């Protein structure tokens, strides 16, 4: 029973883990100039466990900055700096995360991103987890009007006794089945 419960919990927990979302910043445009990242962010919900993926060419970089760095497009004090062209930022904490491109003029022309991360991991919306049902599948109930099987004849032969018991059991099962159908 403990095993079954563990399996059930695993099954219920798995979809939540799968729902962690990778967000490619700017979608197909990627991390570049000429994309309005305020528009890109709007309508999206970012949760702890999600990932921001920055895809960009060699003349761009990704700096994670604080709010003042974001507001002023300052490149002097980044929290983290990346230039590998394919940067995955794991959103591990809630709060607002700020990113800019430190290449001269890029941030001030709009290459900046502010993402609000909510504290709870993504859960399926509108679909509450299914609870295990206590009722057995229909049709498994045996009719209560059946006569109980006759006791097997006593026998000193162990093998014969087992065979008789099997025969009686099968006969009764068939009888019950036909009675039930007919
Ligand atoms: Cu840039």
Automatic annotation (TrEMBL):
PANTHER family: BLUE COPPER PROTEIN, UCLACYANIN-2. It comes from Dipteronia dyeriana. Residues 21-119 form the Phytocyanin domain. The chain crosses the membrane at residues 164-181. It holds the Pfam family Cu_bind_like. This is Phytocyanin domain-containing protein. GO terms for molecular function: electron transfer activity; metal ion binding. Residues 126-135 have a biased composition (Pro residues). Keywords: Copper, Glycoprotein, Membrane, Metal-binding, Signal, Transmembrane, Transmembrane helix. Residues 1-20 form the signal peptide.
């Amino acid at each position: 029973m403990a095993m079954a419960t563990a399996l059930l919990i695993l099954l219920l927990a798995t979809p939540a883990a799968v729902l962690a979302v990778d967000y490619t910043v700017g979608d197909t445009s990627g991390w570049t100039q000429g994309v309005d990242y305020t528009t890109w962010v709007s309508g999206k919900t970012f949760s702890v466990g999600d990932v921001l993926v920055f895809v960009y060419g060699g003349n761009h970089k990704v700096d994670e900055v604080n709010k003042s760095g974001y507001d002023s497009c300052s490149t002097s004090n980044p929290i983290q700096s990346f230039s590998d062209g394919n940067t995955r930022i794991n959103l591990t904490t809630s709060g607002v995360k700020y990113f800019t491109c430190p290449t001269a003029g890029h941030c001030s022309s709009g290459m900046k991103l502010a993402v609000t991360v909510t504290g709870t991991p993504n859960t399926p919306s509108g679909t509450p987890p299914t609870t295990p049902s206590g009722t057995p599948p229909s049709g498994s109930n045996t009719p209560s009007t059946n006569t109980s099987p006759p006791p097997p004849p006593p026998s000193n032969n162990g093998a014969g006794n087992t065979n008789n018991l099997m025969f009686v059991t099968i006969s009764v099962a068939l009888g019950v089945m036909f009675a039930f159908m007919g």
